[in-house]
């Protein structure tokens, strides 16, 4: 069976509340993931900047075996050395965001969110999400942001051969030759508006496409 890798921010805001699951509008998508899982499809979920404290959410609330990553992951995909991440830490110049992320994604803040409860937490999260979208993604870009490619190039110099990111909302792909190695960078883009996704077919075929249906 195959694998489904989700690079975060599949939902506007998702938090692993221990006692409640207030995200009823997400149930159709989560139930579909549940069916995939029951069919033997492995699922990996990389937390983005809209996903928090997912750890055991999938197993405890939906009985799914989902491998959750809070940070980037480096490993091998067949013969290729690969780095996969949501991508929100790809631009070192966004130091204010990095500080904000560190303040937001930690066990102390998670305890406060749990204490505040779903209603208030969801309201605040959506307000922050709207501001973030207007600042970083609302404009109609004609070219992909360069910081992601710069980040991928640095990974290539470290020996990684394939870099796969999200977050930019802009599908992109670049091929480089580094010391005789073919290196590939992909950004899976945005499912909400562009319906873009990346398909890997062993042993070494990658295809960035847009879903039509």
In words, what does this structure look like?
With 213 residues, the protein is of the alpha/beta class. It has 2 domains: 1-70 and 92-138, no CATH class; 71-91 and 145-213, Metallo-dependent phosphatases (Purple Acid Phosphatase, chain A, domain 2). Helix content is 32%, strand content 27%. It is built from 6 helices and 12 strands. The chain has helices at 27-38, 57-62, 95-104, 107-116, 118-136, 146-157, and strands spanning 3-6, 14-15, 42-46, 51-52, 66-69, 73-77, 80-84, 162-165, 172-178, 181-187, 196-201, 205-210. The strands form 4 sheets. Strands 6-7-8-10-9 form a 5-stranded mixed sheet, with helices on one face. The chain has a 3-stranded parallel sheet with strand order 1-3-5, with helices on one face. A hairpin with a 2-residue loop joins strand 6 (73-77) and strand 7. The protein is globular, with a radius of gyration of 18 Å. The two termini are 23 Å apart. The model has no long low-confidence stretch (mean pLDDT 91).
Give the uncertain stretches in residue-range form: none
Which whole number gives the mean pLDDT? 91
Q: What's the end-to-end separation, in Å?
A: 23 Å
Taking Cα atoms only, what radius of gyration do you get, to the nearest Å?
18 Å
Helix-and-strand structural type: alpha/beta
What is the helical fraction, as a range of percent?
A: 25-40%
Q: Strand order, main sheet: write it out.
A: 6-7-8-10-9
Sheet of most strands? 5 strands, mixed
- The count of strands amounts to 12
What coarse outline follows from CA principal-axis ratios?
globular
Total DSSP helices: 6
Strand content: 25-35%
* Overall structural domain count: 2
H and E order: EEHEEHEEEHHHHEEEEE
């Amino acid at each position: 069976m195959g694998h489904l890798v989700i690079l975060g921010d599949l939902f506007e805001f998702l938090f692993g509340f221990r006692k409640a699951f207030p995200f009823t509008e997400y149930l159709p998508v989560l139930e579909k993931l549940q069916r995939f899982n029951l069919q033997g499809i492995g699922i990996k979920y990389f937390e983005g900047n809209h996903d928090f404290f997912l750890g055991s959410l999938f197993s405890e609330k939906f009985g799914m075996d989902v491998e959750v990553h809070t940070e980037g992951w480096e490993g091998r995909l067949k013969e290729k050395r690969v780095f996969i991440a949501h991508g929100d830490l790809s631009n070192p110049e966004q130091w204010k965001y990095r500080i904000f992320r560190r303040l937001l994604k930690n066990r102390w803040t998670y305890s406060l969110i749990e204490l505040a409860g779903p209603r208030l937490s969801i309201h605040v999260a959506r307000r922050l999400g709207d501001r973030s979208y207007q600042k970083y993604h609302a404009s109609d870009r004609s070219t992909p942001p360069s910081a992601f490619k710069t980040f991928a190039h640095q990974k290539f110099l470290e020996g990684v051969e394939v870099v796969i990111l999200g977050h930019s909302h802009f599908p992109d792909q670049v091929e480089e030759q580094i010391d005789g190695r073919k290196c590939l960078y992909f950004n899976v883009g945005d499912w909400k508006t562009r319906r873009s996704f990346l398909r890997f077919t062993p042993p070494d075929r990658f295809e960035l496409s847009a879903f039509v249906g």
